[in-house]
Amino acid sequence: MGESRKMPQSREGRRLGASRQQEILALLTRGQAVAVGEIAERLGVSQETIRRDIRTLEETGLLRRVHGGAMPSGAVDLTARRPVVERMDVARAAKQAVARAALPLFAEGMNVFLGGSSTMLLLAQDLAQSGIGLSVTTNMIDIATAFAAQPRCGVTLLGGVLKPATHTLVGPEVLRALDRRVFDLAVCGTSAIHARHGCLGPSEWHAAIGEALATRADRIAVVADHDKFLRSDAHQVIPFGSLHALATDQAPPEAIKEALSTAEVRLLLPA
Fold first, then answer.
1. What is the CATH architecture of 78-268?
2. CB within 10 Å: which end of the chain, N or C, has fewer?
3. Which fold has domain 2-72?
4. Segments in the chain below pLDDT 50
């Protein structure tokens, strides 16, 4: 009996620790070092607790300890935090190559979900001009507009709270709408591709929509240029085990190539 009473407490402790460690990673998403004292104050725990968490996260490769604090283990893609109108011209040629690489994923009559990002918008523009008949669902206003004039494409813009910087609709309304839909294919962007943790994103919202799509889409694909390889971010959005295909502009580093092969993820490169 004594042992049975201790086990739930141990599990609860691990759960709280994991939640706290996720918050620590979220504090590092600007790509800068954060002091132990600052983290402890924000999370309402002792500095020693934070030091233990930092050691644990360093052992798993999710951050790097520095004197008095911690910083991300890899470069965080700060471009992902900028407004989408600014991101469109960052590495535009690489993003256009990614969009071309992703085109073979689509076929006539497919029911698809397209997530919002600058690379996704370029892909949507290519698809709209391709003449392929698609049923498109999206949470990005610009993507819906790209398909609006195409008579062979139907488009559904999911409702939600408008996020001006990204021109996307977010929040529980989007997740509720997704729960009533199914897709042949869901395609999204990502801010980082980690050899161990897969496709990452900067917020809990990105993780939530990734989780929802994993249950509603027959296949999930990610589009990302080579700058996203070996970067880091705070939240796992799509693990390699849930991914069907990755479209990119250059062959990935060996560690990521091996992880993709192990998970049987299709790698798409420009012709």
1. 3-Layer(aba) Sandwich (3.40)
2. N
3. Arc Repressor Mutant, subunit A (1.10.10)
4. 1-9, 78, 81
